[in-house]
Amino acid sequence: MEGDDLLVGIKFKLAEGWHTYWKNPGDAGEGASIEWNLPEGLKASKILWPGPHKIPVEPLMTFGYNDEVVLLTKIFSTQDVVFPLDIKARVGWFTCKDICIPQEGEISLRINEGNKIPTVDSNEINSYFKSVPTNFNQDYRVERLDDKFFLQTEIGDGKHYENVYFFPDDYGLTNYVDEQKYEKNLNSFILEVNASDANLNLQTFAGVIEATDNKETSYFEISYPLLTEESDSEQSVFLLIIFAFIGGLILNIMPCVFPILSIKILRFMEHSENSSIQTYKFGLYYSLGAIMSFLIIAFILIFLKSSGEAIGWGFQLQYPLVISILFYLFIALGFMFMSNLVFGSQLGQLSSIARVKNESLESFLTGILAVIVASPCTAPFMGSAIGFALLQPGINSIFIFLSLGIGFALPYFILSVKPSLLAFLPKPGAWMETFKQFMAFPMWGSALWLLWVLSGQVDTDTVVLVLIGGLLISLSLWLLEKNTSQIKSIQWVVRLISLILVLFSLWIIPTSYSEIDKETQGDLVYSEAMLQEFRDSKELIFLNFTADWCITCKVNERVALKTNAVNEIIRKKNIKYIEADWTRKDFIIAKKLEEFGRTGVPLYLLYPSEGEPIILPEILTEDTLISYLTEIN
Amino acid sequence: MKIFLKFISIGLLSGTCFGSALMDQKAPDFSLFDSYGKEISLNSFEGKKVVIEWTNHGCPFVAKHYKTGNMQSTQEFALENDTVWLSVISSAPGTQGFVSSAEANKLTASREASPSHVLFDPTGNVGKLYNAKTTPHMYIVNEKGVLKYEGAIDDAGGRGFMFKDLLKATNYIKNGLIELSTGNKLSSPVTKPYGCSVKYAS
Questions:
Q1: Is it the case that residue A69 has pLDDT exceeding 50?
Q2: How far apart are CA A170 and CA A207, in angstroms?
Q3: What is the C-alpha separation between A455 and A448, in angstroms, rounded?
């Protein structure tokens, strides 16, 4: 009848020592496939796979079934059907021991009209049906930290498992061979699973967990969305091209470029008596020169990239080294804008070389020179743009540079087509110097931002070191600016000192991430006396019972306890954060744990200024922790 | 200024890609005897692309690829594209797929296969070095000796393999070699290898 369904099982009986596979066979092998041939009005579900077992094949790991298994399929009717029903299927499967044998067979089943009567077979089908994974109805979460996944769940009613094992649905998620670490806490458990070497950027942590307690083994389906690190680079290429265009436009008003361009614009005015066709021509050649220069830069960089790939050359802005150098550059640029020190000016004089008789050629050369002259100003942010552009496939980076070049050339081109627009432009003058000086502030703002990025990667001491480097860079620039002595030897000594200062500031740059040892940063170490003292003075207290070997504790600390937002609120509300480290099973801490009916960690206690402490859940999320911390008083 | 920052932050965010432990790294060098008793090392092929195939003639997955001519056509395609083809046997002595030199040459002849060399890795050391899990398990090394592909020969893996028409499958090796010679990044540099387990000594 319509809507009715029937559970059909196909039994695989294997000789001793042989096995067949689960839907994900693990490192090798292949699960069974069933092709149904059903009368009209019937449909088959996907295979309902009973919970799998680990079948190690040294040095690999496979997932499947030993001895025998019944694979179940739900057959359901979509309309009224005519009895008797002949159900047929073609089945292909592998049976393996140390070698594999592919097998296939046809099966058929006739179903007569009548009521469903339990039989020996239906009992067996039902018992296998019980081991088909069901939804895991506990709250759980999956965190990926470095190369490990952590599956954590709070056990509400105290039902606990002796062991838990995770079978992933798909390739590229977890390592099959490595042991999984299971840790049982009072009200929660955590499973640590190593990630797969093959990183396929899967979106979900999906699979089946096998949970065993004293009596039985249960299987549950797990599916948890993962934060994928991949940014939407595909869609954002178009956006980047637009940004590159705007960036190119902005380059025109950068202090290095604008003075040179305004000289050129003045020459326009001289020419404006001539026919407009000629100025249009200047603009065209200028644009060609500028765009070509950007394209050449793009090709050089792409070449460098493709040849550098093999030797591991990579433009990685995640490196503290790169960030520190960018920081120095922004500091230096800001200083140069503030002072009269302009390295670009010598280059700017070069454009006079281009004052050749052929005016089209001159415009073309000016375009090239403008790009060269612009480069001191653009280096910092062009560097980043280039860094990103290079991560793109070759053709995209060419478009990004093309767009940058077009943006750069466009204002000049427009002016050349319509010289009358010149009237709307501010005349070059003293304001340019003021503007140049003002530009120092956004530069230093960017430097600040970079420092903030750096502070997330290295410890405070190293950040201070980079700040000292910035100071030395400024000092060396100041020295160079004041270096107007008539005596050659003094000039050279000052230059040498500046060089030494610059080299020194480069030398102190951090080249690798430092272990940010937050544990020792202002955390209080538990003692009963200290706790009592804080209690007496009615302080808010967060007491963290932890241990180095406690995986749950470490995961909680990484995802909740030691996050910036939590630190912020702890600092703001002046909550005393005390750590009781049970790594060495300290007797005093054990006694304290016992007070709260615990024999192990983690245990999180939040003391209000008066009254009994609140016991926090064993699995902390940033949100729950923040709401507890916000409410306490 | 926001735009500058935008560029910087985009630069900071990107950088993770598909990969595996060996991917885009210098492929580990090895040196093995071939079926003519000659010692062959991977490094000696620098300047040419190399396809490495883990094989075991007794494995039904491998057998199907050879019976349908799929593996041979892939080998011919590789040779036409100036690529060296190494078939590696990591089966331990006494296990399925372990063959003598004479047997290996006979297999090559009878299957009309055209590997550049059939290499013996009875200790399984090279197989484990490359994390070879299945037969077939395929790798592509570029002219500079950098690993560019690891995984299955095609997308016919998965359940129902024995019923599938291999000649209709997407061949990752052919595609990979084409993409490499046009200078593109591989569209699927890592795929799930499928087949029998490599019969390592246990």
A1: yes
A2: 8
A3: 11
Nearby residues of A155 by Cβ (< 8 Å), 6 or more positions away: A138, A187, A188, A189
pTM for the whole thing? 0.62
Chain A CB contacts of B202 below 8 Å: 58-59
pLDDT tens readout for residues A555-614: 888 888 888 889 889 988 889 899 888 877 777 888 888 888 877 788 999 999 988 999
Q: Are strands A188-194 and A524-525 parallel, antiparallel or unpaired?
A: unpaired
Residue of A73, A175, A197 to mutate, interface with B, max B Cβ within 10 Å: A197
How far out from the chain centre does Cα A270 lie? 55
Q: Is 50 exceeded by the pLDDT of residue A520?
A: no
Per-residue pLDDT tens digits for B129-159: 999 999 999 999 999 999 999 999 999 988 8
Contact B3 A246 (CB under 8 A): yes
pLDDT digits 0-9 by tens, A416-455: 777 777 667 666 667 667 777 777 787 787 788 778 777 7
CA of A303: how far to CAs of A298, A308, A310, A383, in Å?
8, 8, 12, 16
CB–CB contacts below 8 A, A to B: 150
The pLDDT mean for chain A works out to 80
CATH class of B30-197: alpha beta
Pick the closest to residue A150 from A533, A551, A451, A609 (CA basis).
A551
Q: Distance between CA atoms of A304 and A584, rounded to whole angstroms?
A: 53
Q: Which residues 6+ apart lie within 8 Å of A463 measured at CB?
A: A451, A454, A455
Domains in chain A, start-ordered, CATH in brackets? Answer: 5-132 (2.60.40.1250), 135-225 (2.60.40), 243-457 (no CATH), 518-631 (3.40.30.10)
Tell me how long chain B is.
202
Chain A partners of B157 at a C-beta cutoff of 8 Å?
30
In this structure, are residues A566 and A623 in contact, taking their beta carbons and an 8 Å threshold?
A: no
Alpha-carbon distance of A293 to A22, in angstroms, equals 59
Residues B86, B53: Cα–Cα separation, whole Å: 6
Domain boundaries, chain B: 30-197
CA distance B24 to chain A (A): 8
Residue pair A250/A378 in contact by the 8 Å Cβ criterion: no
Kindly give the pairing relationship between strand A576-581 and strand A541-546: parallel
Look at the alpha carbons of A626, A463, A230, B154 in this order and tell me if their dihedral is positive or negative: negative
Spatial separation of the C-alpha atoms in residues B78 and B140, rounded to whole Å: 10
Question: pLDDT, tens digit, for every residue of A12-51?
Answer: 999 888 999 999 999 988 999 999 999 888 899 999 999 9
Cβ-based neighbours of A48, under 8 Å, separated by 6 or more: A71, A72, A73, A74, A129, A132
ipTM of the complex as predicted: 0.83
CA gap A474, A332 in Å, rounded = 6
> Quick check: B105 contacting A, CB < 8 Å?
no
**Cα separation, A539 vs A609, whole angstroms:** 5
A86 strand-pairing partners: A110
Which residue in B has a C-alpha nearest to residue A446's C-alpha? Answer: B5
Residue A262: pLDDT band by 50, 70, 90 thresholds? Answer: low
Task: Scan for tokens 């192990």, then name that residue.
Answer: A600
